Amino acid sequence: xxxxxxxxxxxxxxxxxxxxxxxxxASVANLxxxxxxxxxxxxxxxLIGFGSLPIVVLTGFxxxxxxxxxxxxxxxxxxxxxxxxxxxxxxxxxxxxxxxxGLMVAGRNSSGMASELxxxxxxxxxxxxxxxxxxxxKKLVTPRVTASVFMLFFLSIIxxxxxxxxxxxxxxxxxxxDARQYWSNAWQVLEFQDVFMGLLxxxxxxxxxxxxxxxxxxxAKGGTQxxxxxxxxxxxxxxxxxxxxxxxxxxxxxSVLSFN
Amino acid sequence: MSTPxxxxxxxxxxxxxPSGAAVVFEDVHLAFDDNDVLRGVSFxxxxxxxxxxxxxxxxGKSTILKLVLGLLTPDSGRITVLGNEVTQMHEQDMFxxxxxxxxxxxxxxxxxxxxxxxxxxxxxxxxxxxxxxEVDRRVRESLRFVELEHTLDLFPSELSGGMRRRVxxxxxxxxxxxxxxxxxxxxxxxxxxxNTIVELIMKQRDVYRTSSLLVSHRLQDAFTLATxxxxxxxxxxRALPRGQYCNVPMSFLILRDGKVVFDGDIRQLAHTKDExxxxxxS
Lengths: 260, 282
Fold this sequence. Notes:
The structure holds 2 protein chains of 2 kinds.
Chain A: H1 6-29, H2 38-77, H3 84-122, H4 125-131, H5 136-173, H6 179-188, H7 192-218, H8 223-257
Helix pairs in contact in A: 1-5, 1-7, 2-3, 2-5, 3-5, 3-6, 3-7, 3-8, 5-6, 5-7, 7-8
Chain B: E1 21-32, E2 35-46, E3 50-54, H1 61-69, E4 76-81, E5 84-85, H2 91-98, E6 101-104, H3 116-127, H4 132-145, H5 161-173, E7 179-183, H6 191-208, E8 211-215, H7 219-227, E9 228-231, E10 236-239, E11 250-256, E12 259-264, H8 266-270, H9 275-281
Parallel strand pairs in B: 3-8, 3-11, 6-7, 7-8
Antiparallel strand pairs in B: 1-2, 1-4, 4-5, 9-10, 11-12
Helix pairs in contact in B: 3-4, 3-5, 4-5, 5-6, 6-7
């Protein structure tokens, strides 16, 4: 493999960030320019939203369950086992629901977008689309970004709910707690800040998932091997970016919304 | 293969071709990293004419087509397509112009997740406002032109290489473009299928008078195009008498090391003294 000089390497990375930024901005700007591919948006929403539902439900349910199991011992030591509903609720709504949903959808859809668009690039289908007078950014990228943002919002809500149900299952079956008390605690502890944080994050994660997947797909080079590389890079980059963004958004919101 | 022997006498018939140029290249330079692909390429494609582009692999033939479409931007020089200087145009402004062009890619580049019907209808469905009945009629008309009407509901993966190429032609011509670009349309095909494709290119040239640039590795295809015409009556090719070759709207352009070494008609090609060209066409 040829060695790249540090300067060239840095230039390449800066250029990639620049190209990503331009693409991400164009994907939003295209929403205000005709034609708007509404049918493609609905199709992508079905693929991303409905298609990801099983893994989101399973992940959310078992995460809620294991959260209750892991914390039960500690809470019992302090005689606060009845607070388990509060703990599962705040953890799922603020953090685990959006992040795990984001990571699951990133694994499924960032890779899918990168491989689909990458295959189209290496088989000249993107060139053909441009040659036929269609802007691939409008036709392929914007519908995926819109659908991801929209569907991740709802998938996160579903994940939160089934996570709470998972916690309830553990609380009732293994800890012999009252279901009504669990739900009451879980519901009452939630404040506007928690819900706001829990609903803002999936919007950002959806944007990251789609733009990263499309970016790596659209810049795929080198035949089928290049498509494979783009797919792997998309999943890794989207997952890491979700976790990094999560940290900074959490820090920012905690400061701005002044959590207790 | 031998170069056709041509008489010096050629009787030009009154031209019924429109005047003007479909494509003009003026001193176009393009390099990829350290590799100079085009080094001062200049030529004109008059309206209604077909120009065959030849050259060894990597000489920049396909690059010229991509430059015409604005899929690539030259480092310097001017390119004018149907009166529009594409070198000065923004990508967004290129889309309406591309709607007036048609291209057949080397590997067909059909959308593999769409059926033949959807592939051929792609441009019409993108235009919006065209009724389904009209789209269906024009798709069938286009597919009938390439004799593949029976493949409407098949996917590209279910077609042979030659059939894919013909569907790509149908997709390119459905809007009756003013300029057609063919990138090695007969590459990798058997002689029978190649002849069918050449016949379709000739039919498009002689029936619809469409200007076209044809990238090819097969000289015999271009010689067939230069020495035959399409007879709409019999729906077949007809060999022309030697004295009428000069009336065929067909020319040749040969590239070598990123430069144009020949640009002329079949008679000029047959009488060239250039050693490289003589060797190339022999």
